[in-house]
Amino acid sequence: MWYGRSPRLNITKPEFIREIFAKYEVFTKRPPGKKTPFGLVMREGEDWAKVRRIINPAYDMEKLKNMLPTMEKCCDKMIRKWEEMVATTGSAKVDVYSSLNALSGDVIAETSFGSSYEEAGKDTTTSLLTWAMVLLSEHQDWQSKAREEVLSRFGKDKTPDYSDINSLTIVNMIINETLRFYPPVSSLSRIIHTNTKLKQLTLLNGMEVNMPTIMVHRDQELWGDDANEFNPNRFSEGVVNATKVPGSFIPFGGGPRICIGKNFALIEAKLALTKILQHFSFELSPSYVHAPMCLAAMVPQFGAPLILYQV
Ligand code: HEM
């Protein structure tokens, strides 16, 4: 047994990461600290399995479909607020990070996912939507392509339904590339409680295994020479064909402890982005400072001031 601070090993090879995810009983999460909200995220063993079984049905597709109208209502509230700000002069400077944070909070509260263990869902979805808007501000060509897709399918006023949302291709590619480029959960950590083997490595009781998602997502050996560029095209043939090695795209983790809110988050993100593109074009404000910072999720330290224009 190690004493003091756990020795930490960084693992970035997808084949190792897949094994760690699969052996979730050997590679467990850290035991909850005093201030950790007591929820599914930090539970372990039988206790985790029991709670996950209980809450799994709440996240099935049929239930998510029923939540769509509530998500739409919350998005409309944000869009109306932005429209009021833009109304007088046709444009306005808005810190979209705080607006999107309020939106994600509303959605979780209104869809009754608001218990303490789902707090993680708020910060991560906010992070995804904020970086998507920042990246589309920096890559106006992709912003135009996404808006063309949305307007050609739904015009300016139709609210997309569940199958509409799933049929979007450009928007979907942009969401995936945003999750690759700025993974909201930028690294994952596990503790081992018994000497164990990980392929050819021998790991000792008490060691911490760290999986820096962001490094895996930017690895040129896995993603090609343009790994450090924003290029949604890499997802044009789906996630499986976007990389050379399976398991290189892990924004939601993997194995039995994969994010339970994945589909919930993706629906919310695609719906919100669609509505935003229907109503506004946007660019970075000169006051935007690029400073990604890891709190509960990766967020822009000084917010995301963008200039919004009416479409
Ligand atoms: C873009 C949005 C999101 C991202 C990137 C994300 C990412 C993740 C990741 C990486 C994990 C696994 C952590 C680990 O293995 O250590 C996780 C777990 C989890 N997520 Fe998410 N998440 C998102 C949205 C949500 C939402 C919307 C909810 C709830 C409504 C949610 C609830 C949870 C819960 C409860 C767990 C723990 C699951 C378990 O341990 O069995 N997440 N999430």
From TrEMBL:
GO cellular component terms attached to this protein's record: membrane
InterPro entries per record: Cyt_P450, Cyt_P450_CS, Cyt_P450_E_grp-IV, Cyt_P450_sf, Cytochrome_P450_Monooxygen
Cofactor annotation: heme
Gene3D superfamilies, per the entry: Cytochrome P450
Subcellular location as annotated: Membrane
Positions of heme binding: 259
Keyword Signal: no
Taxonomic superkingdom: Eukaryota
PANTHER family given in the database record: CYTOCHROME P450 CYP72A219-LIKE, CYTOCHROME P450 FAMILY MEMBER
Family (UniProt): Belongs to the cytochrome P450 family.
Name of the protein this chain belongs to: Cytochrome P450
Taxonomic source organism: Chenopodium quinoa (Quinoa)
